[in-house]
Every structure is written in structure tokens, then in C-alpha cells.
């Protein structure tokens, strides 16, 4: 029974293949416009688009077509139009260059928009000065790979998101580069999806904006110098692995903002030079393992609304504050991390310090409670206070301590360079 | 001419000078005498501007010195205890003074020669004995050929030979018409060097006259005796008035 | 005046302290650059030196120097030299040699190891703090005739501005933490040259991001031309005021 199905599947595929035609569009071809090409093509056909500039307003793809660019033909929206609107499943778009979509405050004009589709592939395209780059709604089983999106807006309201997903599932976003949009990658109500090897840099708001999206995984991405870093909110079952969060520096910027996240996994990431490495509130049951926090202002800001989180085998290096919290009740576990500020000893040579390390400094606590106190930072007074508090803890949370601080930084394989 | 006009000075509660009024004139040499702590040095220091009077005025050639400093060109001062930057040599000190005080007058190096100071020009100040220091102070006071000379205990600590050299120098300068103010405990020295006596006691000038007059009044031939008699007379007078 | 300055300089150089101070700064700056390759972090470490060591050395050295040159001052005062000239000569000589030591000690290694603009701010604030604390030390020196007492007063100035004042500031922040305090604290910071120097330096190092709203407010203030003018002139006031007071006392002082 199974074999029959497979054979019939192969036959069906072969017959489709033989039926599919190939149409070439270009300035020197019989068919000069893409619009005409789409009109003449039948579902399953391939449209080859030759280099040139095509100003054809909004084009609707209502059949399963394969659009392939030769030498990056330019599709120009003339600052007025949405360029491609996909209304069919199985569309492939590859090797095109989209420029100058319209800008609108009511409609989300995009270079490529798909609503209610499946099995789409948007690969190796270039987007320049687009309002939204790739916009999917109610779409599933699709791939967005190897695209380069570049915009240069100055204010958030002038620009949309690079890759915008709304109510989708089973999407793979892989190997894209997104620069200068509002949010680099935007996920809302997206489930069971994969975000890998993307590079999101210099976006005005978040490098990755992630809401109500459960059971997704993002891995090996780099988020650099985005307005407010990366925000992951109101989700559960998120895996964040081997990403790099860098240079998210500003008074309201975070490497990673976790808000109302549950049952998730944050591992082997690198947080470097962020004003706050991880800011978390209302989050619980998250495992933080083998992350490296380096040169951040605050490595971790753990609000009192978080519980049952576990920090294990992370490296804390050269951060101004390692951990700050705004409460005294401690419901999280911090164990076996490496802290460069640890001054204890290891008499029994088991590579673990013999006295616990308290990552929360008195001054850190004070700044949490009265932000104005930050103006005393690096003063002699603060230095003395922290020293005293370390010697005789009185105010910092008694239980917030690492009982088994590592004497040496962990060698985390993914972070070797 | 220098005149002290009602000069008073208090150090805290201590009244060191009590409305001192005194005129001194060129070509005369004044012996400023009085017991320890009577206010001689304070008087000299206020003339030099080192001490600022609490009230009163000091006039140097018709000009108040309280806001002036240029008049000090005309004064040579030899302090009671010569205090100098310790780690420079005598030669450097002399050079420095000549540098700081470019004088139009002829430089007078007679004392430097007489005391043979040039032989020890490379000695550091801190290595000098009290007597040598005095020699340096004396040489510096006379160096710029000033019309006014103030000598605070000039002969203290000097060996007899040097004292004689020094006295000769003072007499010579006096003859040139210079105004001299000398304090000393060695009254016999003053006998030879001075023309007038100013006796200070408890911040007040008790007596001011020429030495001749003093000796006549007291029927004594030597200044030492004359002063002693003067003090006795005073005490007698005081006991009567009391 | 130049002649007097020349002799004071000569005297200062002979004590070798200035040379030792330069050497100390050179060695520690070199060491910091050796240990840490990131110039930004070295500048932060040097900031501690600037805020603590520079004022301390300035007050102690100046007071000791003043009393050691009492003889010289006395000698000069019996000469036809204006008191103001002597006073300013002393100030200029001491301040210049300490500033020179500081600029050479911090500046040379920083230039060798490749410095950014923050080093210039560091040099500027350090020089300003030196000038301020030398002036304060002169003030404490003329306030009393006793060397030990004068050093005590000078150290008190140092202690007050490095520690006690910040304690009071913290108390204010703590007591009134429910009110918007930005402008008040800004004013309060102007009353402490060490804090002023520290904040200018921290903002230069872009630490403002950690300072939340306060940081943004301060950054916008100190980043503007007005703010720069304001902070520089406040520091100048901090130099001029003690100096003027000290001179007034000195010109009436009995020696």
C-alpha cells in the first residue's frame, strides 16, 4: 500500500514536471513584463526574469509559479506600490531584487507579501529600501533563506519590519541578513519554527521581536547594535542556542529581553557589550546554560517576578554588574558558574571555590531601588561600600549566591573562534 | 626717614606692640634694646612688611608701606636667625638674590671678601654652622648697598675676629650716611656702633634719645651701665606712682 | 615673576618627588596597558587613579612643599618682591610641575598604546583636579602656621570631596528618591570637583546607558556646548575660589 503511494507520487511529480513550461521575460524577449508573464503562465510554470528594471506596480501571484532572476532583475515599487502579493501555495521566488516599495501608515506594504499560503520559498533575493521586506500571514511550511534586506530609515514610523511573520507555523528563516528595518525579524503567533544563521544589525527597534510564539527555536544568529536588542515575550518552549547578542547599547537596550517566558532553554549564547545582557521579568522555568556574558553593563537583571530559573555553567566576564535584582526573595538557582570577580580560594583543588560567591553587589541593589544613585558609580564611597558588604553581607539577598563557583572559565565549544 | 605711627600689633590676645610711635632719620644709627619678648623683632618685621600691624601706619619716605613693597629695595635686612632654602649652596643663594633684586646701585661684596665666603661658595646651606650663616646673612644685607640697614642681633654667634670685621663695616657704612637699626643684647657692641638709643619694654617705647644724652642723664660712661641705671630709675619712678 | 618661578622650579626638581610621581604614573599606566589590551578598560582603571591618587598627591605634596619653602618665602618677602608675585609663583610652579608629571605619566603610555579621545578627557579632568587640589592645599597651608595641622586640613579636604560628600549625596538621593532629582543632583555635583570630573569622564566612556533616565539627562546636559562650558567654568571656579581666598589670607599673613 505504501509503495503504491510512493510510486504514484513519483508519477504525479514526473507528469507535472513534463507539463511545466518555462517562460523567459526580459527587455529583449517577446514577453517584456512580469505581469504579462504571470498572465500567460500556468500553475507550475517557471518564469525566468532577465536583468533589467521592471516598474509594474503591484503584481499578484495567484498561481503556483517559480520566479527566477538572472543577474538580479530589479523590481521597482516606485515608492508607491506593494510589489509582489502571493495568493497561491508553492510559489518560489529566487534571485530578484526588490526596491522602493510604497510607504503607508494604514497598509503594511511589503516587497513580498503572502497571506494564507503554504510551501513558499523565498530565497537569495535582495531587498533595498522596502517598507516591509517579506511579510507572511497565516502561512505555513515555508522557507525564507539567504535574503539580504537593507533599509535606511531614521525613525521607527517610517519603516516596517524586515521579515514579518504573523500567525504562521513551520517556517524556516535561515541565513538572511537584515539591516536598518524597524524590527529585523518579527514573529507574532508563530509556532514550531526555526530561525537560524541570520544576521540582524542596526535595526531601529529590535533585532528580533518575538511574541506569543511557542515552541520555536533560534540558533546561531547574530544580533548586533539594534536599537533595543532582542525581545522575546509571552511565549513558552523557546530554544535560544548559540546566538550572539552584541553592542546593544543604550539606556533602554537589552541584549535579550525575556518577558513572560516559560519552559525555555537559553544555552551557549554570547552576550557581549550590551548595556543589559539579559533582562527578565515574569519568566519561569528557563534553563540558562553555558552562556558567556562579557563586558556588559548588567549581565543579568533578574526581576523579582521570576522564579524557578536555573543559571548553570555560565561565564561572567568583565561585566559592570553581574546580577541585579529588585527583591530580596530569591526563587532562582544560580550554581556552578564562573565569575571573574570571585575572590575565593580552592583549598581542596576540586576546581570549585570553597566559599560561595554573591553576584549581587550592594551598590547594584541600591541602583535597582533608586536609579539616581547610579551617579555615584565608580566613586570611592561605592567601592568601600561594596567591599564592606562583601565582607559582612547585611543588605544583599542572603540566598542569592553561587555555592559552587568555578575557579576557571568554562571552555564553551560554540564560542571558540 | 621712617616713621612708626601708633603701630600696634596683637598676636591673638598677646599685645606685642602697643601704639609705638617713632621717627628715625638717615645718617643715624639706632640701638633697639629691650628684654626678650619686648617687641623689637616684631617692630623690625612690621617695618619689613613680614608682619602686618593690627593698627597704625608705618611711613617710609612719605609713603605708607602697608600697601607698598618697592620700598624694600632700599632696605638691607639681616635676620636674627637666618633661614634660607636648605639645599642650595651659598653661591647659588648669592646668585639668586642678585637675580631677584636687580639693583641700580653698586654691588658691595666687601663682606663676602672679608669673611672669605667665596671659598665656601659650593657648600650647602644646611651644612653651615650658626656663625657662618650669620656671615652669609650679613653679607646679603650689605650686598645691595641699601640706604637703610636693619640688623637683628648681628653679632650673635660670630667669632671675635669676624665681629671686629663686621663692626668696622658697620661703622664705615654709618659714616656714608646710612640709616641703621640695630638690636643686640651685647650692649657694649652697640656703644661703639650707634648714635641713638630706643628702649622698648612690653611693646612700648620707654625711652628714646641720643647715647650722649643718656650717658649724661645717668652719669655713666658705658652704655651698659647707663641702661641699667635707666631701668632702675624707671622702676623707682613706677613704684612711687603706684 | 619668572625669576622667582625659576627658583621654585629648581627647588621642586631637586627634591626628585616630581620625578618619582611621574615614574609612578608611567609604570602603573604601562602596567595597566600590559595587563589589559582594551584601551577603554584601561581608561576606566586610570579613572580610579585620577579620582583618588591625583588629588591626594596634589594636596599632600603641595602642603609639604609650602612649609618646606617657608624659608624661601620669608627670604623673598624681605626683598622688594610683591607678596602676590611670590604666592602666584608658588602656585604656578607647583601646579605646573604636578600637571606636567601627570600628563607625561598618563599621556605617554596612552599615546604609545594607541589612545582614543577618552584619554584626552582623562588628561583634561586630571589636570583640572590637580589645579583644584593644589589650590585647596595652598588654602589649608595659609590657614595655619603648623605644618602637621595644615596637612591635616588638606587631607580633610581630600577626604571630604572623595568620600564624605558622596555619602551626603547618597543620603539625599535615598531620602528624596520618590522625587525627580536630576536637576538637584546636577547642582549638587557642581559642588564637588571630584564628582564633576567623574561624571564628565563616565559620560565620555558612554556609561550613560547604564544610568537610565538620569544618564540620558546628564548626557544631554554635559554633551551640549552649554554643559561643557558649564562644567569647565565650574571647575575653573573651583580653582579660582580657593586660590583667591588663600591669596587674601596670605597677603595679610604674619611670617
Number of helices of chain A: 4
Beta-strand portion of chain C reads: under 5%
Number of structurally distinct domains of chain C = 1
Q: What is the CATH class designation of the domain at 16-227 in chain A?
A: Mainly Beta
Instruction: State the low-pLDDT regions of chain A, or none.
Output: none
* Greatest interface (CB-CB under 8 A), with counts per chain: A-C, 24 and 36 residues
Percentage of β-strand residues of chain A: 35-45%
Question: Given the C-alpha coordinates, what overall shape of chain A results?
Answer: elongated
Average predicted confidence as pLDDT of chain A? 89
Category by helix and strand content of chain C: mainly alpha
Terminal residue distance of chain C: 21 Å
User: What is the H level of CATH, i.e. the homologous superfamily of the domain at 16-227 in chain A?
Assistant: Single-stranded right-handed beta-helix, Pectin lyase-like
Description:
The complex is a heterotrimer of chains A (417), B (242) and C (255). By secondary structure, chain A is mainly beta. Chain A contains four helices and 38 strands. Chain A has a domain of 212 residues: Single-stranded right-handed beta-helix, Pectin lyase-like (Pectate Lyase C-like, 3 Solenoid), CATH 2.160.20.10. In chain A, 11% of the residues lie in helices and 37% in strands. In chain A, helix 2 links the parallel strand 1 and strand 2. The model of chain A has no long low-confidence stretch (mean pLDDT 89). Chain B contains eight helices and ten strands. In chain B, strands 6-7-8-3-9-10 form a six-stranded mixed beta sheet, with helices on both faces. Chain C has one domain. Helices cover 85% and strands 0% of the residues of chain C. The chains are: A mainly beta (417), B alpha/beta (242), C mainly alpha (255). Chains in contact: A-C, B-C. At the B-C interface, helix 2 of B face helix 1 and helix 4 of C. Chain B: Keywords: ATP-binding, Nucleotide-binding, Transport. Chain B: InterPro entries: AAA+_ATPase, ABC_transporter-like_ATP-bd, ABC_Transporter_VariousFunc, P-loop_NTPase. Chain B: This is Cu-processing system ATP-binding protein. Chain B: One of its GO terms (molecular function) is ATP binding.
Amino acid at each position: 500500500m505504501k509503495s503504491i503511494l510512493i510510486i504514484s507520487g513519483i508519477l504525479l511529480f514526473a507528469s507535472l514536471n513534463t507539463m511545466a513550461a518555462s517562460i523567459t521575460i526580459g527587455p529583449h524577449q517577446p514577453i517584456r513584463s512580469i505581469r504579462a508573464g504571470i498572465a500567460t503562465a500556468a500553475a507550475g510554470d517557471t518564469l525566468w526574469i532577465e536583468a533589467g528594471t521592471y516598474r509594474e506596480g503591484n503584481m499578484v501571484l495567484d498561481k503556483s509559479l517559480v520566479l527566477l532572476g538572472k543577474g538580479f532583475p530589479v523590481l521597482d515599487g516606485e515608492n508607491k506600490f506593494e510589489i509582489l502579493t502571493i495568493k497561491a501555495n508553492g510559489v518560489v521566488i529566487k534571485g530578484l531584487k526588490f526596491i522602493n516599495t510604497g510607504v503607508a501608515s494604514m497598509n503594511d506594504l511589503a516587497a513580498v507579501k503572502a497571506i494564507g499560503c503554504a510551501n513558499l520559498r523565498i530565497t537569495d533575493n535582495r531587498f533595498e529600501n522596502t517598507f516591509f521586506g517579506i511579510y507572511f500571514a497565516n502561512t505555513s511550511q515555508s522557507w525564507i533563506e539567504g535574503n539580504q534586506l537593507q533599509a535606511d530609515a531614521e525613525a521607527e514610523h517610517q519603516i516596517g519590519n524586515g521579515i514579518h511573520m504573523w500567525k504562521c507555523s513551520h517556517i524556516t528563516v535561515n541565513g538572511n541578513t537584515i539591516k536598518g528595518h524597524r524590527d529585523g525579524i518579527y514573529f507574532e503567533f508563530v509556532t514550531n519554527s526555526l530561525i537560524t544563521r541570520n544576521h540582524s544589525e542596526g535595526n531601529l527597534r529590535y533585532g528580533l521581536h518575538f511574541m506569543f510564539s511557542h515552541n520555536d527555536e533560534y540558533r546561531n544568529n547574530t544580533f548586533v547594535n539594534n536599537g533595543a536588542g532582542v525581545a522575546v515575550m509571552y511565549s513558552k518552549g523557546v530554544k535560544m542556542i548559540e546566538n550572539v547578542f552584541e553592542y546593544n547599547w543604550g539606556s533602554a537596550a537589552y541584549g535579550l529581553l525575556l518577558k513572560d517566558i516559560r519552559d525555555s532553554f537559553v544555552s551557549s549564547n554570547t552576550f557581549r557589550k550590551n548595556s543589559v545582557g539579559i533582562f527578565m521579568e515574569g519568566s519561569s522555568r528557563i534553563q540558562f546554560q553555558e552562556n558567556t556574558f562579557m563586558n556588559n553593563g548588567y549581565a543579568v537583571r533578574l526581576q523579582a517576578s521570576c522564579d524557578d530559573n536555573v543559571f548553570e555553567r555560565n561565564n561572567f566576564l568583565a561585566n559592570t554588574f553581574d546580577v541585579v535584582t529588585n527583591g530580596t526573595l530569591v526563587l532562582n538557582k544560580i550554581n556552578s558558574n564562573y565569575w571573574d570577580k570571585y575572590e575565593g580560594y580552592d583549598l581542596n583543588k576540586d576546581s570549585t571555590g570553597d566559599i560561595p560567591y554573591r553576584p549581587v553587589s550592594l551598590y547594584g541593589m541600591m541602583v535597582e531601588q533608586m536609579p539616581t544613585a547610579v551617579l555615584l558609580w565608580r566613586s570611592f564611597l561605592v567601592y568601600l561600600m561594596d567591599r564592606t558588604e562583601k565582607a559582612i553581607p547585611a543588605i544583599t539577598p542572603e540566598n542569592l549566591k553561587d555555592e559552587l563557583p568555578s575557579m576557571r572559565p568554562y571552555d564553551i565549544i560554540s564560542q571558540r573562534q | 626717614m621712617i616713621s612708626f605711627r601708633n603701630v600696634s600689633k596683637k598676636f591673638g590676645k598677646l599685645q606685642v606692640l602697643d601704639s609705638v610711635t617713632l621717627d628715625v632719620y638717615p645718617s643715624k644709627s639706632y640701638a633697639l634694646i629691650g628684654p626678650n619678648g619686648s617687641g623689637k623683632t616684631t617692630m623690625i618685621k612690621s617695618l619689613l612688611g613680614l608682619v602686618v600691624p593690627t593698627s597704625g601706619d608705618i611711613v617710609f619716605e612719605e609713603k605708607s608701606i602697608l600697601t607698598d613693597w618697592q620700598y624694600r629695595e632700599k632696605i638691607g635686612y639681616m635676620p636674627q636667625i637666618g633661614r634660607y632654602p636648605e639645599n642650595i649652596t651659598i653661591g647659588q643663594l648669592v646668585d639668586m638674590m642678585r637675580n631677584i633684586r636687580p639693583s641700580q646701585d653698586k654691588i658691595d661684596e666687601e663682606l663676602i671678601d672679608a669673611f672669605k665666603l667665596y671659598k665656601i661658595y659650593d657648600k650647602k646651606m644646611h651644612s653651615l654652622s650658626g656663625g657662618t650663616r650669620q656671615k652669609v646673612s650679613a653679607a646679603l644685607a650689605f650686598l645691595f648697598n641699601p640706604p637703610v640697614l636693619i640688623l637683628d642681633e648681628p653679632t650673635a654667634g660670630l667669632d671675635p675676629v669676624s665681629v671686629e670685621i663686621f663692626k668696622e663695616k658697620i661703622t664705615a657704612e654709618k659714616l656714608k650716611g646710612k640709616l641703621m637699626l640695630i638690636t643686640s643684647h651685647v650692649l657694649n657692641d652697640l656703644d661703639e656702633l650707634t648714635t641713638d638709643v630706643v628702649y622698648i619694654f612690653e611693646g612700648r617705647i620707654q625711652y628714646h634719645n641720643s647715647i650722649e644724652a643718656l650717658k649724661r642723664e645717668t652719669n655713666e660712661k658705658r652704655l651698659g651701665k647707663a641702661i641699667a641705671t635707666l631701668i632702675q630709675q624707671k622702676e623707682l619712678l613706677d613704684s612711687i606712682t603706684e | 615673576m619668572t625669576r622667582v618661578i625659576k627658583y621654585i622650579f629648581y627647588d621642586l626638581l631637586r627634591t626628585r618627588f616630581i620625578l618619582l610621581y611621574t615614574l609612578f604614573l608611567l609604570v602603573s599606566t604601562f602596567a595597566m596597558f600590559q595587563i589589559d589590551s582594551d584601551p577603554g578598560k584601561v581608561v576606566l582603571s586610570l579613572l580610579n587613579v585620577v579620582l583618588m591618587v591625583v588629588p591626594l598627591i596634589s594636596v599632600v605634596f603641595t602642603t609639604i612643599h609650602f612649609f618646606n619653602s617657608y624659608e624661601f618665602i620669608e627670604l623673598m618677602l624681605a626683598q622688594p618682591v610683591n607678596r602676590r608675585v611670590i604666592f602666584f609663583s608658588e602656585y604656578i610652579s607647583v601646579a605646573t610641575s604636578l600637571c606636567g608629571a601627570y600628563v607625561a605619566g598618563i599621556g605617554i603610555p596612552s599615546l604609545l598604546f594607541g589612545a582614543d579621545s577618552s584619554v584626552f578627557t582623562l588628561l583634561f579632568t586630571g589636570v583640572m583636579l590637580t589645579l583644584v587640589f593644589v589650590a585647596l592645599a595652598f588654602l589649608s597651608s595659609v590657614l595655619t602656621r603648623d605644618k602637621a595641622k595644615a596637612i591635616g586640613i588638606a587631607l580633610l579636604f581630600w577626604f571630604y570631596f572623595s568620600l564624605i560628600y558622596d555619602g551626603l549625596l547618597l543620603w539625599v538621593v535615598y531620602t528624596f528618591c520618590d522625587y525627580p532629582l536630576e536637576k538637584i543632583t546636577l547642582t549638587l555635583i557642581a559642588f564637588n570637583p571630584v564628582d564633576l570630573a567623574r561624571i564628565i569622564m563616565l559620560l565620555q566612556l558612554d556609561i550613560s546607558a547604564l544610568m537610565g533616565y538620569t544618564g540620558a539627562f546628564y548626557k544631554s546636559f554635559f554633551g551640549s556646548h552649554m554643559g561643557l562650558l558649564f562644567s569647565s567654568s565650574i571647575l575653573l571656579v573651583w580653582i579660582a575660589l580657593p586660590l583667591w581666598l588663600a591669596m587674601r589670607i596670605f597677603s595679610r599673613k604674619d611670617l
